[in-house]
C-alpha cells in the first residue's frame, strides 16, 4: 500500500525523513509517496545523489544535473529554497566533486546563484587562469563576500589576542601601578610570603610596557599552494591581512609550489592575495624556506609559520637544515599541516616527525585556535598543540 500526502504525526515525520534519505525505489520500504514541497526537495536531492524525483521511486538512477548552466543555476536556486545554508554548501561541494561541474563555475549566472563559502573560493582560485574576463569580476565579488565574512569573524579576536601577547612580551621591572602584571609579580615574590599576615611582600614588580607604534615582532607566513591546501590558503590570506594591519607586527606573506611568490605588497587586500595564488602544481618547501630565511633580519623577534602538508618535492635534508638553522638563530618556527576547520589532511609523517625532533611540532590548526598559537609563538612559550 502506498501512502501519499505530507505526514503529520511523529511516526509519519520519521517515515518522511527516511523516505527523503533513502530516495525511493523498489527496496526502499517506506511505502510513502511525496507531494508538494517534499517532492521538490526529493527532486533536488535526486538530481545530485542518484536519479531525480519520481524516477527514484521506479528504481531508476539516470537523472542528474547535466551540463547546462541554466539548468544547474535553477537547481542551485532550488536547494537554497529548501535547505539551510550549511546543507547548501555541502551539496554544492558534492555537485562540483561528484558531477564535475567546475567548468560551469566559469559562467557568470552560475556564480550569481551559488552560496559562497571557503571551499567554493578554493575551487574558483584553482580555475583562475582559465577564467574568462566576463566571469572574473563576478568571481571576485564572490570571493570578497567570503573574505569579508571571515574577517568579521576572526579579525577582532586576533588583534586583541596578539596585542596582549605583544604587550606581555615587553615586560619592564619598574612598571606604573596600572601596568603591573599581578600574576607574574605574585609568582616572582612567593618567597616573601608572610604567614602571620597572610600576604606576599612584592619586593620586585613585574609589568609590561604600554603599546607603542614601533615594530616589535616580524611574522613570515609561508604557504603551500598545492591543490590540497586550498582552504588553508584562504584562511592564511585573511589572517595575513589582519596581521599586516597591526603596526607592531611586520608581516610577510609568501606562497609557493615549485616556485616562490612574495605577495606582501598585496596584503592590504586579501582578495588580491588570493587571486595572486595559483593552486596546484608541485612542492618545493626547501626553496620557499630559503627565500624566507633570506628575508629575516631580526631572528630573535621573528616567527615563521609554515603551512604545508609537508610532501616535499625539493631537497629534504636541506629543508630540515634550514629549519634547524632558523631555530638556532632564535626564530620561533611553527608548522601547520592545515589552517582550516577540516582537521589534518593527508601529510608526510616522516617529515612531521623530523620537524618535531627539531622542536617544531607539526599539527593541524583551526582558524579559531590560530590567534592563540600566534600569541604563544610571539611570547616564546609552548604552543597550544591540539
Q: What profile does the largest beta sheet have?
A: 6 strands, mixed
Number of strands: 10
N-to-C order of helices and strands = HHHHHHHHEHEEEEHEEHHEHEHEH
Helix content: 40-55%
Radius of gyration: 27 Å
Shape: globular
The proportion of strand residues reads: 5-15%
Distance between the termini: 54 Å
Q: Uncertain runs with pLDDT below 50, 5 residues or more?
A: 52-63
**Biggest sheet, spatial arrangement of strands:** 7-6-5-8-9-10
Main structural class: alpha/beta
Oligomer: single chain
Quick gist of this model?
The protein has 15 helices and ten strands.
What does this structure look like?
Helix content is 47%, strand content 12%. The protein is built from 15 helices and 10 strands. Strands 7-6-5-8-9-10 form a 6-stranded mixed β-sheet. It has a two-stranded antiparallel ribbon with strand order 1-4. Strands 2-3 form a two-stranded antiparallel sheet. The chain is of the alpha/beta class and 386 residues long. Strand 9, helix 14 and strand 10 form a beta-alpha-beta unit.
Amino acid at each position: 500500500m502506498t501512502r501519499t500526502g505530507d505526514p503529520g504525526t511523529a511516526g509519519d515525520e520519521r517515515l518522511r525523513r527516511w523516505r527523503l534519505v533513502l530516495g525511493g525505489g523498489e527496496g526502499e520500504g517506506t511505502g510513502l509517496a511525496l507531494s508538494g514541497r517534499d517532492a521538490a526537495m526529493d527532486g533536488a536531492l535526486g538530481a545530485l545523489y542518484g536519479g531525480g524525483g519520481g524516477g527514484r521511486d521506479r528504481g531508476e538512477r539516470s537523472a542528474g544535473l547535466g551540463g547546462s548552466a541554466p539548468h544547474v543555476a535553477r537547481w542551485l536556486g532550488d536547494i537554497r529554497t529548501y535547505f539551510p545554508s550549511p546543507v547548501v554548501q555541502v551539496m554544492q561541494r558534492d555537485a562540483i566533486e561528484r558531477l564535475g561541474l567546475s567548468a560551469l563555475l566559469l559562467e557568470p549566472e552560475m556564480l550569481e546563484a551559488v552560496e559562497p563559502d571557503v571551499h567554493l573560493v578554493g575551487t574558483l582560485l584553482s580555475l583562475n587562469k582559465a577564467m574568462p574576463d566576463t566571469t572574473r569580476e563576478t568571481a571576485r565579488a564572490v570571493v570578497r563576500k567570503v573574505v569579508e565574512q571571515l574577517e568579521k569573524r576572526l579579525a577582532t579576536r586576533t588583534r586583541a589576542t596578539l596585542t596582549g601577547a605583544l604587550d606581555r612580551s615587553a615586560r619592564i621591572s619598574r612598571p606604573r601601578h596600572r601596568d603591573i602584571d599581578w600574576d607574574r609579580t605574585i609568582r616572582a615574590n612567593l618567597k616573601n610570603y608572610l604567614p602571620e599576615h597572610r600576604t606576599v611582600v612584592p619586593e620586585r614588580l613585574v609589568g609590561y610596557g604600554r603599546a607603542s607604534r614601533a615594530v616589535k615582532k616580524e611574522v613570515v607566513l609561508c604557504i603551500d599552494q598545492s591543490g590540497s591546501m586550498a582552504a588553508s590558503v584562504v584562511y592564511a590570506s585573511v589572517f595575513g591581512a589582519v596581521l599586516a594591519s597591526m603596526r607592531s607586527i611586520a608581516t610577510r606573506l609568501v606562497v609557493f609550489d615549485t616556485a616562490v611568490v612574495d605577495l606582501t605588497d598585496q596584503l592590504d587586500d586579501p582578495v588580491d592575495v588570493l587571486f595572486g595564488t595559483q593552486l596546484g602544481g608541485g612542492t618545493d618547501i626547501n626553496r620557499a624556506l630559503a627565500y624566507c630565511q633570506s628575508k629575516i633580519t631580526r631572528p630573535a623577534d621573528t616567527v615563521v609559520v609554515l603551512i604545508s602538508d609537508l610532501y616535499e618535492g625539493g631537497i629534504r635534508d636541506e629543508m630540515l637544515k634550514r629549519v634547524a638553522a632558523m631555530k638556532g638563530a632564535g626564530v620561533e618556527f611553527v608548522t601547520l599541516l592545515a589552517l582550516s576547520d577540516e582537521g589534518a589532511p593527508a601529510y608526510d609523517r616522516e617529515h612531521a616527525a623530523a620537524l618535531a625532533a627539531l622542536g617544531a611540532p607539526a599539527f593541524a590548526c583551526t582558524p579559531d585556535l590560530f590567534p592563540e598559537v600566534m600569541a604563544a609563538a610571539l611570547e616564546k612559550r609552548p604552543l597550544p598543540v591540539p
